[in-house]
Each structure stands twice: as C-alpha cells, then as structure tokens.
Amino acid sequence: MTLNSNYLHRGKPPWRLNDFLHYDKTFTTSLASELENFFKTNDNSEASIFSIWQAHKTVIRGHLIGRASYLKRKRKKEHMDLLRKLRDTTSAHLLNPTDTQEK
C-alpha cells in the first residue's frame, strides 16, 4: 500500500492564535475597547458590512500578533538574562572557588 500526497508545503505555515492571550484580562479588555473604537469609526453606510467584517478581523489579528510578539520578546530577554547571570556566576566561581564544594 502506498500513500501519496499532492500537498506541497510552501512558505510559512498559517498564523495560529496563541490561546494564552485569552488569560490576560487587561489585554482582552484593551482589545475589546479597540474593537469598539473600530466599529464606531467605521460605522458608515459607504462600506459594505462584509468589508467592515473582514477589516475588523484584520485589526484583531494585528493586535493579537503584536501582543504575542511582545510576550515572546519578553520571554527571550528573561531567558537571555538568566543565561547571562548563570554564565557570570559560573565564571566567578571558576576564578574563586569556595571551600563548600562536596568532595
């Protein structure tokens, strides 16, 4: 039995929602406020409701991607700070070892 797939993955995978963003109450509140402002600003008869709906999804996605990127940069910075602290502590210990080491 042979299975073949004609699906060729090209480029980046599609964007996926970071589920942990729902737990940040301040972010969800600010996102709701942004959406209210968006619909107040775009509440006119010139654009179709479909266009407004598509645009609001883009606005939400932009805010979600921005917040996820911010949190990722923050985690990376904390990780790098911990690694730097570990490296500094290790090099300080190598230069001046203490007598409390187990033998």
TrEMBL record:
Protein name: Uncharacterized protein
Species the sequence originates in: Pelobates cultripes
Source species taxonomy: Eukaryota, Metazoa, Chordata, Craniata, Vertebrata
